[in-house]
Amino acid sequence: xxxxxxxxxxxxxxxxxxxxxxxxxxxxxxxxxxxxxxxxxxxxxxxxxxxxxxxxxxxxxxxxxxxxxxxxxxxxxxxxxxxxxxxxxxxxxxxxxxxxxxxxxxxxxxxxxxxxxxxxxxxxxxxxxxxxxxxxxxxxxxxxxxxxxxxxxxxxxxxxxxxxxxxxxxxxxxxxxxxxxxxxxxxxxxxxxxxxxxxxxxxxxxxxxxxxxxxxxxxxxxxxxxxxxxxxxxxxxxxxxxxxxxxxxxxxxxxxxxxxxxxxxxxxxxxxxxxxxxxxxxxxxxxxxxxxxxxxxxxxxxxxxxxxxxxxxxxxxxxxxxxxxxxxxxxx
Length: 332
Description:
five-stranded mixed β-sheet, 21 strands, globular
């Protein structure tokens, strides 16, 4: 990344920090009101549930079009929420046998037309000291209601397994995790602090998921195969590096061809060519950044119906749910 591009990102971060300070003084909801919509940026609604005060992960529901799963950052219980297309809370689920250490991202993926999963990423490690981090594989719950009324009391959903991970080159702080259902893998991107020297680059890591998803296993589905993840961590292999700081979220579309990663100010959309690995695709120069709506602390992104729609939301209460439309490539 050029020094000019780094300077632009730094200015955007400083502007976001100033507006976040103003939102604290004037009320968070007033912060949302100053955001300007355009032909490509649309505010879908405001998330008014004050339990959702620090959303750090969002994933599209595979059962209900334009509905979204979210969770809070560290300090909350191990729970997920379902939001309507305008940000209303439709339900809350506690994830059984899970620990909410530092949940930082959430992914959704399908293995069949009627079989969908969520992957909750307990991967935050600000001091880079954790012996291992964890991914929780959860069957996507079906929403109990969609009438926009008050959600029922919290329900529970099982964690099918805990996948413990250790990076091959030492502990890393990570906030961006995505699942590619075609390659049957997980991609993780390290979060680096702003570094103008460019001497360090954010690591990009790969984990094979096929041994943990029941439909992908090559042996008896009744066999407890989570032992690999529970008894000892599996190794996340470094496949590429980025000269990019503050990567806070990521998603891969259901075709396995598109990957979007965000910082506090921009999104970067990658298109994987036919027969190309993610290691090859993510080793190419960074694409031009897509300017995101200014948010107090944007740490969540997911694709909408297709790769031309990006959905984002920020931490802090009463934040808007944003939809950004990306021009379709001529090759698509």
